[in-house]
Amino acid sequence: PQGSEEAKAFVNAFLKRSMPKMKDEAIQDILTQKAVVLEHYSKKKTKQKRKKTKGFTAKQRREMRLFEIEPEQQRYAIFLPLHELWKQYIRDLCHGLKPDTQPHMIQGKLLKADLHGAIVTVTKSKCPSYVGITGIILQEFKHVFKIITKEDKLKVVPKLNNVFSLEIDGFISYIYGSKFQLRASERSAKKFKLKGTIDL
Description:
The protein is built from six helices and six strands, in the order αααααββββββα.
């Protein structure tokens, strides 16, 4: 029956379960009101932290010889198709190398382009033994180019203090290695200054 002790005990117990964060005095105050608003407390979901996949360290890459080209693969003829692909890539990048194309536009594109497969020649160098080396770029690192020559010799040429030239469809571009000491991925986002003095 309404007003009995059992009913009071049930209501008090029910409100305690429904509003666990409230004190008994606060619950009694709510009972004096005409309406009772029951609160709902949702359990906070703990977010699982994603584990970042760690790549190989530089030491591990050296030990695994990931970037080494086997001696039997060091042949100029093997990489000629790569050079043809690179030429097509540059033509697409420059929207066709037409005679009326502005040279500075092509130069700007080449500065940010991937050079793997390009045929380059060392035209100037502080070290005379590097001058005249011509070949296909097989690998580009921050400070060096790895070039395969027509004599099937793999040359490691530093960028510092060297000037390289590359030719495509009659257009000749010069690369000043001292200003080019970036990885290919970093170079694509870099803004190059068109003017300024350039030293070896």
